[in-house]
């Protein structure tokens, strides 16, 4: 046996854990991702339905009556599968009306009648008392069997501890702390729900654990257990027990009613629901949970009968089995599971009942007293309301404890649970009848529930207080009613079936007769329209009527019940959604009064909210008749406008449907259902748009592929689309528009005939086009042949260009080697006779290099390989580099090159623009025998104009177009300078790639002016004055002692590079691969001053080799990348790593200029 202290400590620790989880939920609950965690938590919270009755009582019932225990789970499973639309409808109505409890819901249907609300609250309270006592009995009985006491406490004498009382008080504290944090009962209790979800997991795991132990450890698997069970007469008797059909029906019906009408179930299912996705998830997970927790009920019951030979309380087999095997830990786990099942029910039931008691019993009395006394009532009610609920929680739990002590608790747990179910079922006619019958009213609801509840109390509740022998009930009451008992098909021996059936029959008869004896009042008619006709309320419908009450009066009244912060937040939301600004001193209209009534209803219930407004209106208006007239006027106006709106919508030829922010249907007309041919079930509030589309798919109107596209079309607002039904037999034009509350309004127009007329017209046009096509066939054929010839020519041209681009790389490699060798030989020959010959070879190689470079550029431009990479470019920096490059060339020809400074920043590709300007400057220098070349920038509005002017030979106006063609040269130019005639062709292509137009002005013998126009980047303009860069560094600077590392996988190129650099005085180290580069430092090489690397290596790239060398020595080693690959990707990679790039074949002068600049910078740094 476990000691009482261990059991008490375990229970106390578990309750503390609940506190911790609930606190965490209150702090972090709203951050749980709605798309993932929250729907699962919501589904698990519904498992509060599984109390200690399920945990302990189900086993006890199975041990006695076999599979009868499944009856109370079939009803909920049916409700959450087949009856899910009913639950969805109840949730939608509760959200729209801001209803906080099942009493509030039923009362709202019957004109917010306070009498209806009070009766529902009393039924819920009295029906819950045996249920709470059931949980306390389960806890005390489980402790009793573990410590072998009477079950009334732990210990004896002075050390006696009343565990049920302690549990009652602790659960009351928990419910008060986490269930009464807000006066607004529509506020979600995140901490409480998270704790309940955790308890659902705990009890499921505990039940599965004991089930696995029983089947696979206590017995050798299911086969062994079943074989032994069939050999036991008690087991066979339980398994062969025949539950009458009428009892099955009653169990299923009562449990189906209970899953939605039990106060705790209504609270977690309706009030705590946030999205339609949560309900869809619950429709799958909750039935699966019910199946999972009942899988081992029958095996545990069979094992209990076999182990204990049918002796002892079968309800406690769950505990007695591990206890008999002296498995203390497993026993404690089982106890915690049952304890969790009991506490979860008690907590949520007490919170839900406290809301009903405060809103529907205490507050109406409290408010009527104020109405009678005509007090101003300016005191804050929010704190009073919370205290009433806290007191109600404590009172409810103490009533349950009192029933536990006073009543005879020898009956099974299942009997007590069914007693509560039968009580709750008395609300079913009023609830479900109110959703179906428009003429039902408050008189019928009150009569039905009152008489039905009295029958239940006399036949079931009172006998439960008198001991297990209920024979006097059967003999007196049922004997007196024996003529009526025959309708139960011999069920007179079953008090539950008889009493439940009789009470529901009396309830329904009284409900119908009471409703027929009086016409519905205006507000009852209005609410019937909301609950049955499923019309959405429109506050603007009765905005015109003003009252004597001001906006400030309403705000002050509501703040007393909800608090100042909640009131301000709610009215701000109302102003934003309605597009109105509320002046505190202005008179409130009916729309604002209706909004205030709903807002108050979220805190104190719809019935009490109406009484509060009556009190306020009576204080402002002199007579109570004025008060009633104002409220009824609002109701009548709303009803009238709703009827007018529905009539107008019904007469329209277009279909109209309105969906809320969750894409659930809230308003529609008859034409909408006719056009889409929707069934009656689709015409109800809350029906999802996705389900409507699914109906069309299932019926074959649209395909599976069209289904997803159709959902996207509905959500693409302000864009009409066509809906083709039945393969085009009917074509509907659908238009969608946004609503202020994030919903959508859709219209549907049958355009089948219009489309057919369009098709006929199209066919006529096609016939006409055919005749025209026949007459012009020859012309078309000729045009096609011309187009094909042109396409073939263009393809041939593109093929040629691609060939040049592909062959260029292979040609440039040996050419680069030859150029290196020739340059080296020129320097080594000095003044010998062969120097002139070698210089001619070098000059020829340079010409070949220039031709290949130009051809490659043209091929890349024509094939679109050059993609501009636009960025902000300071023009002054770019022009300074061009001046540095061409100043020595100009001086060599006796010309003066002038580049004017500028501060403009343009949007362009710096590399392509530089190439373009370089070609223009190069041409200007080449064809200017004497004088100067000027480069400058003008600003024209938002454009920058780069101008290149020279005093050269000029171009005749008739040749302006010719000079931009490939290999086109003028006679004067041929005589003046050598060239290929490709420079301006490249300029023209680059200008088109960059969208920078080039303009030409010139006269023969008068010089030439080229203009390039490009956009200014205003967002990057910088202030200040442009400065000139220092003059170009002479390439004749000595390079003695400069340590250069050369990397190339071509031995000839590597050798040529070494010869050239040695001739310049450099100290050269070579590497032929990436692997060799990685080991330089290991083999003792010192840090190089510069790196010259080819891009394409056998085992990597030159950029990777440079990076490896920098890692070994110094990240700041200057590097030059030489490559025949002219792609922008390679250039961008080099720029990213701070590497200078020169294309093959490398010009020795350019390479030497780079090395000389580096050498001078190193010497300057050393000084």
Would you spell out the secondary-structure blueprint of this structure?
Elements: H1 4-28, H2 37-45, H3 52-65, H4 71-79, H5 84-97, H6 102-109, H7 114-147, H8 163-179, H9 190-218, H10 222-230, H11 233-239, H12 245-261, H13 263-271, H14 276-293, H15 297-308, H16 317-324, H17 328-373, H18 382-406, H19 413-424, H20 428-436, H21 442-464, H22 471-480, H23 482-485, H24 495-516, H25 522-533, E1 546-550, H26 551-562, H27 564-578, E2 587-589, H28 590-604, H29 606-620, H30 624-651, E3 655-659, E4 665-668, H31 670-676, H32 689-699, H33 704-715, E5 721-725, E6 730-738, E7 744-750, H34 752-775, H35 777-829, H36 834-862, E8 871-874, H37 875-892, E9 896-899, E10 905-908, H38 910-926, E11 932-940, E12 943-950, H39 971-976, H40 983-994, E13 998-1002, E14 1008-1015, E15 1043-1047, H41 1051-1063, E16 1067-1071, H42 1074-1078, E17 1090-1094, E18 1096-1097, E19 1100-1101, H43 1102-1112, E20 1119-1123, H44 1128-1136, E21 1140-1143, H45 1148-1166
InterPro entries: CheY-like_superfamily, HATPase_C_sf, HATPase_dom, His_kinase_dom, HisK_dim/P_dom, HisK_dim/P_sf, Na/Glc_symporter_sf, Na/solute_symporter
Organism: Pararhizobium antarcticum
Subcellular location: Membrane
């Amino acid at each position: 046996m476990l000691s009482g202290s261990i059991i008490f400590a375990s229970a106390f620790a578990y309750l503390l854990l609940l506190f911790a989880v609930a606190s965490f939920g209150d702090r972090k609950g709203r951050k749980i991702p709605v798309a993932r965690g929250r729907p699962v938590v919501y589904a698990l919270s519904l498992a509060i339905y599984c109390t200690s009755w399920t945990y302990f009582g189900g086993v006890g019932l199975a041990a006695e009556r076999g599979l009868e225990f499944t009856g109370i789970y079939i009803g909920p499973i049916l409700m959450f599968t087949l009856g899910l639309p009913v639950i969805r409808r109840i949730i939608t109505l509760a959200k729209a009306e801001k209803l906080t409890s099942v009493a509030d819901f039923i009362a709202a249907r019957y004109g917010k009648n306070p009498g209806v609300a009070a009766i529902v609250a009393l039924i819920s309270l009295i029906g819950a008392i045996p249920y709470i006592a059931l949980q306390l009995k389960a806890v005390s009985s489980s402790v009793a069997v573990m410590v072998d006491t009477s079950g009334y406490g732990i210990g004896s004498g002075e050390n006696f501890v009343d565990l049920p009382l302690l549990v009652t008080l602790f659960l009351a504290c928990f419910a008060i702390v986490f269930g009464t944090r807000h006066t607004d009962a529509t506020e979600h209790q995140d901490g409480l729900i998270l704790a309940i979800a955790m308890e659902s997991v705990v009890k499921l795991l505990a039940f599965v654990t004991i089930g696995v132990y029983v089947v696979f450890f206590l017995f050798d698997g299911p086969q062994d257990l079943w074989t032994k069970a069939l050999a036991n007469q008690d087991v066979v008797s339980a398994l062969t027990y025949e539950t009458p059909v009428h009892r099955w029906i009653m169990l299923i019906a009562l449990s189906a009613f209970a899953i939605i009408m039990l106060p705790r179930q209504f609270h977690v299912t309706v009030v705590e629901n946030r999205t339609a996705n949560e309900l869809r998830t619950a429709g799958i997970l909750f039935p699966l949970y019910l199946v999972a927790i009942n899988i081992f009920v029958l095996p545990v019951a069979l094992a209990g009968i076999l182990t204990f030979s049918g002796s002892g309380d079968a309800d406690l087999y769950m505990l007695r089995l591990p206890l008999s095997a002296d498995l203390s830990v497993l026993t404690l786990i089982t106890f915690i599971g049952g304890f969790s099942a009991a506490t979860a029910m008690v907590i949520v039931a007490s919170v839900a009942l406290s809301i009903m008691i405060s809103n529907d019993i205490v507050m109406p009395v409290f408010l009527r007293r104020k109405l009678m006394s005509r007090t101003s009532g300016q005191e804050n009610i929010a704190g009073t309301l919370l205290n009433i609920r806290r007191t109600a929680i404590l009172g409810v739990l103490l009533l349950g404890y009192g029933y536990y002590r006073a009543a005879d608790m020898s009956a099974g747990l299942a009997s007590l649970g069914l007693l509560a179910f039968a009580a709750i079922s008395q609300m079913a006619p009023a609830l479900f009848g109110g959703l179906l019958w428009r003429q039902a009213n408050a008189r019928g609801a009150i009569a039905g529930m009152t008489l039905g509840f009295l029958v239940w109390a006399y036949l079931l509740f009172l006998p439960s207080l008198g001991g297990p022998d209920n024979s006097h009930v059967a003999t007196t009451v049922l004997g007196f009613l024996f003529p009526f008992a025959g309708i139960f098909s011999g069920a007179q021996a079953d008090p539950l079936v008889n009493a439940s059936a009789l009470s529901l029959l009396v309830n329904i008869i009284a409900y119908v007769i009471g409703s027929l004896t009086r016409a519905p009042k205006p507000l009852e008619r209005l609410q019937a329209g909301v609950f049955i006709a499923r019309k959405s309320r429109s506050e603007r419908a009765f905005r015109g009527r003003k009252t004597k009450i001001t906006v400030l009066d309403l705000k002050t009244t509501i703040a007393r019940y909800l608090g100042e912060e909640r009131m301000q937040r709610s009215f701000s939301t109302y102003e934003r959604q309605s597009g109105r600004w509320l002046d505190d001193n202005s008179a409130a209209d009916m729309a604002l009064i209706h909004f205030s009534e709903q807002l108050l209803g979220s805190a104190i219930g719809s019935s009490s909210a109406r009484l509060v407004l009556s009190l306020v209106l009576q204080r402002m208006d002199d007579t109570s008749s004025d008060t009633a007239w104002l409220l009824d006027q609002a109701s009548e106006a709303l009803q009238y406008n709703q009827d007018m709106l529905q009539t107008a919508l019904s007469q329209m030829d277009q279909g109209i449907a309105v969906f809320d922010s969750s894409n659930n249907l809230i308003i529609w007309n008859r034409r909408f259902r006719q056009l889409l041919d929707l069934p009656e079930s689709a015409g109800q509030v809350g029906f999802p748009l996705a389900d409507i589309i699914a109906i069309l798919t299932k019926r074959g109107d649209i395909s599976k592929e069209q289904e997803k596209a159709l959902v996207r079309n509905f959500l693409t607002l302000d864009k009409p689309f066509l809906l083709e039904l039945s393969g085009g037999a009917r074509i509907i034009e659908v238009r969608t528009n946004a609503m202020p509350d994030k919903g959508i309004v859709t219209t549907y127009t049958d355009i089948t005939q219009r489309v057919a007329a369009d098709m006929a017209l199209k066919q006529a046009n096609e016939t006409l086009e055919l005749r025209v096509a026949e007459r012009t066939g020859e012309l078309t054929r000729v045009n096609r042949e011309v187009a094909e010839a042109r396409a073939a020519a263009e393809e041939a041209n593109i093929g040629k260009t691609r060939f040049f681009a592909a062959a260029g790389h292979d040609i440039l490699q040996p050419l680069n080697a030859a150029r290196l060798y020739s340059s080296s030989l020129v320097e080594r020959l000095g003044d010998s006779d062969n120097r002139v010959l070698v210089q001619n070879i070098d000059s020829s190689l340079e010409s070949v290099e220039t031709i290949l470079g130009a051809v490659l550029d043209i091929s890349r431009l024509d094939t679109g390989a050059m993609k501009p990479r636009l960025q902000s470019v300071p023009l002054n920096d770019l022009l300074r580099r061009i001046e540095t490059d061409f100043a020595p060339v100009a001086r060599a020809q006796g010309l003066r090159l002038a580049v004017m400074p500028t501060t403009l920043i343009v949007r362009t590709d710096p590399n392509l623009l530089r190439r373009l300007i370089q070609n223009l400057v190069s041409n200007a220098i080449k064809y200017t025998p004497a004088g100067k070349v000027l480069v400058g920038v003008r600003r024209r509005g938002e454009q920058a104009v780069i101008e290149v002017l020279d005093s050269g030979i000029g171009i005749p106006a008739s040749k302006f177009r010719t000079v931009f063609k490939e290999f086109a040269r003028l006679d004067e130019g041929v005589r003046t300078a050598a060239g290929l005639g490709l420079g301006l062709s490249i300029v023209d292509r680059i200008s088109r790639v960059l969208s920078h137009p080039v303009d030409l002005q010139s006269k023969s013998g008068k010089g030439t002016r080229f203009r390039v126009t490009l956009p200014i980047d205003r967002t990057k303009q910088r202030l200040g004055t442009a400065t000139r860069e220092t003059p170009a560094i002479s390439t004749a600077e000595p390079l003695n002692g400069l340590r250069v590392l050369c990397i190339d996988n071509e031995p000839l190129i590597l050798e040529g590079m070494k010869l050239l650099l040695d001739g310049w005085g450099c100290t050269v180290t070579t590497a032929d691969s990436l692997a060799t580069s990685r080991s330089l430092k290991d083999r003792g090489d010192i840090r190089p001053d510069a790196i010259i690397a080819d891009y394409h290596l056998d085992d990597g790239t030159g950029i990777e080799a440079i990076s490896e060398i920098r890692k070994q020595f110094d990240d700041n080693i200057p590097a030059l990348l030489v490559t025949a690959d002219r792609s922008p990707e390679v250039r961008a990679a080099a720029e990213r790593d701070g590497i200078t790039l020169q294309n093959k074949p490398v010009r020795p002068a350019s390479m030497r200029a780079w090395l000389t600049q580096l050498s001078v910078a190193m010497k300057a740094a050393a000084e």
